Amino acid sequence: xPKLTIDGKELDAPDGxxxxxxxxxxxxxxxxxxxxxxxxxxxxxxxxxxEIEKAPKLQIACNTKVAEGMVVHTQSAKTxxxxxxxLEFLLINHPIDCPVCDQAGECKLQDYYMEYDDQPSRxxxxxxxxxxxxIPIGSDVMLDQERCVLCARCTRFFDxxxxxxxxxxxxxxxxxxxxxxxxxxxxxxxxxxxxxxxxVGALTEKDFRFRMRVWYLHRATxxxxxxxxxxxxxxxxxxxxxxxxxPRYNPEVNSYWMCDEGRHDFVKLQNETRxxxxxxxxxxRLMPEEWGVAVRxxxxxxxxxxxxxxxxxxxxxIGAQATNEEAFALKRLMRDTIGSERLAMVSFTPPGLSxxxxxxxxxxxxxxxRGLEALGIPPVHFDVFAKAVADGELKMLIVMxxxxxxxxxxxxxxxxxxxxxxxxVLDTDANEMVQMANHVLPIGTYPETDGSFTNFKGxxxxxxxxxxxxxxxxxxxxxxxxxxxxxxxTERTSDANAIFAQLAASEPPFEGMSFDALMPHGASLKGxxx
Length: 530
Ligand code: SF4
Ligand code: SF4
Ligand code: FES
Prior knowledge:
Strand 8 (167-170) and strand 9 (177-180) form a beta hairpin. The protein has helices at residues 19-25, 77-91, 108-117, 153-161, 192-197, 260-263, 291-309, 324-338, 369-374, 382-390, 404-408, 410-417, 432-436, 476-488, 496-506; strands spanning 3-6, 9-12, 49-52, 59-60, 71-73, 135-136, 141-143, 167-170, 177-180, 203-205, 218-223, 232-238, 241-247, 279-282, 285-288, 314-319, 343-346, 396-400, 422-427, 439-442, 451-454, 459-463, 523-524. It has a 7-stranded mixed beta sheet with strand order 15-14-20-19-18-16-17. Helix content is 27%, strand content 18%. By secondary structure, the chain is of the alpha+beta class. The radius of gyration is 28 Å and the shape is elongated. The longest helix is centred in the middle third of the chain and has 19 residues, at 291-309. The structure holds iron/sulfur cluster (2 copies) and FE2/S2 (inorganic) cluster. FE2/S2 (inorganic) cluster binds next to loops.
């Protein structure tokens, strides 16, 4: 562990890290464009120049490893002059786009100009080299060649991570520009990551451009529910609407990346079909009802069914889109409150989505199949359930976060479950199964819920509520708590942290875990080695 000094502060740094990483540990920022911790070092932007005592000239911090006795200055006159000069050079041909650029607010040229340059341009506007603007280059990516600082992060991502090499730097000198090869657009399932790593407004997202100024966006820490990988993400939202997902670094799951399917997973959560009030079937129409009335009426059906046919005449099916906390709360409701062990999981993947690849994407499009398995909830066998209905042993079904009509097809669903006395659905949208339910309780989507998912490798990660569910909808755990209270009069918590504590205390695979300790990178189920 070499000991070095940066700006007068001493540090014992791990072997092999560079000066940008070492300075970061001391809370010192060394500005940089081309360096990215997950890509090879090219050292082409020169923004990270620092003064190192005994070195004959300034050195780039990204390509300088820590060494014993090194003394580094990031604030000296020589370093500051170099930073100013590099920025002036980078800005010579940069267009005056800031007021209309969609990267404003998260652009490293803007930020560094204010922090390290702050001088008027000496270059005449009419002499700037003009290049292409707003060029659709494939996938969801728009290219503005004039804004590019030629850091080569995007080309390295496609060369080193996806190995698809769609982008390259063409031409010479101040005519250098990023482009695709003629007739070969960007076409891979991870293209959106170049938008995230481009430090300026040269690569932007077609779907997001000009939809929202970034300083209005709030962030919630979460996990993508697009497949069982569970990539760590930040949800960017404003006034109850999601505008984009961005990958969040998790070395145990997704590094810095996410796939494009997952990046757009939020679109389906914001449909006009969202349920905003409990509904009851009334003369072949679903009519809104107060929560108190709805849960009391469902509870009285549960009581009547128990009395007439026994607790096992009540069953439940939960989708693997549910959180660990929702699954645990429903399991307890079924087993401890109602007295039925008839609880099963449906882990459904719609057709037409990507299969397993060698990077992140998984064919199973459910974020929590492994979590429900770890809670001892078996996969559903529809034939067993259907036989129980046909034999008169199953009279009432509670279905949470699973559209069984979509899973089974309408004819099969009606054949299997048409003879049920009572169907209660807890879901987010007015799907086809909801239309057939006797009672519907509206619940929040996963960005509207606190909780956790367990990925296919057994990594348990937290999701945080970005904003509350719409209208009178409740979070899934709050809905189960309301129903439980209506059945036995006992108050239950609807706090995800408290439910996770109960879960960790009673479910062996989760033993020893704490909700707070799941931030930021999660924890592995007991006995799981990554
Ligand atoms: S487009 Fe962006 S990431 Fe690519 S070289 Fe230019 S500035 Fe760098
Ligand atoms: S790999 Fe799966 S979890 Fe990751 S971003 Fe894509 S869909 Fe989401
Ligand atoms: S970050 Fe070091 S040269 Fe670009």
